[in-house]
Amino acid sequence: MRSRPSLRPVAIVGAVVVLFLLFRPYVIVPAGHRAAVFSLTEGVWNTQLGEGFHFLVPVVHRPYLYEVRTQTYSMCQVHWEGEVKGDDGLTALTKDGQTVSIDISVRFRPDAGNVWRLHKEVGPDYTAKILRPEVRSHTRVAIAEFPVTEVYSAHRQAIEDRIETRLRAAVQRAYLKIDDVLLRDIRFSPAFANAIEGKQIAQQQAQRMQYVLEKSEKEKEQKIIEAEGEAQAIELKGQAVAENMKVVQYDYVRKVAPGVQAIIADGKTLAAPVPKGE
Questions:
Q1: I need a surface site. Which of 126, 141, 149, 216 has the fewest CB within 10 A?
Q2: Do 17 and 76 share a domain, yes or no?
Q3: Of 27, 47, 67, which residue constitutes the final position of a domain?
Q4: Do 80 and 22 sit in the same domain of this protein?
Q5: pLDDT for residue 109 is more than 70
Q6: Rounded to whole angstroms, what are the CA distances from 184 to 74, 104, 152, 268?
Q7: Which stretch of DSSP H or E encloses residue 45?
């Protein structure tokens, strides 16, 4: 009689699988991430785990994942676009005391080689602790260096460059890297906006008047040219008459008195030739 196969090995394997899944003695680091590890016996490891599968001691080792790909942190007036819901736009004073409202986005990423330091010194909430206050501070400082007319005009790129340079130096100490700073929108006070609109209207009116004046000037020049042409024609005609006086006299006699052979005017005889056969 055959003996039944023992179920003990199957039970042992099943128990191991259950324990493995329950205690998760491993961590899988996804693409674009690093893992800082806190140990109950050693504290934070002086290194970070790269992408892939890693064994850990359950309960003793606790991993913390950090995304090291480029991320965007926005502070804007539109309620659903920023990291903080609601009106999260910045307000700042220009060099001449005008208030402006700013929507800004910052592209950044944690330093992949110092994730363990970031975790140890700052923690996972580094955007609220480091990035956000630094963005607010350096944006206001940069805006305060320009008068409102330059903020309104073509100096936006210069403002972005100053914010980026200072922000990069500030957050580097917290193991963050800045890729880009984007001033998405700058809004001015109603009084300044009305002044700009009035200035634009005045400029348009001035341009329209300039066009009218230029058109009148061209018409005047055209009339002068025409008058000069007529005067020149009269002068040429006078010269032709002076050079051909006899022809004029003949034409005059013929038209005034077709049957008269001669006319005496001012002591001068104007003769007309007698047609043949008379």
A1: 216
A2: no
A3: 67
A4: no
A5: yes
A6: 9, 5, 13, 97
A7: strand 43-49
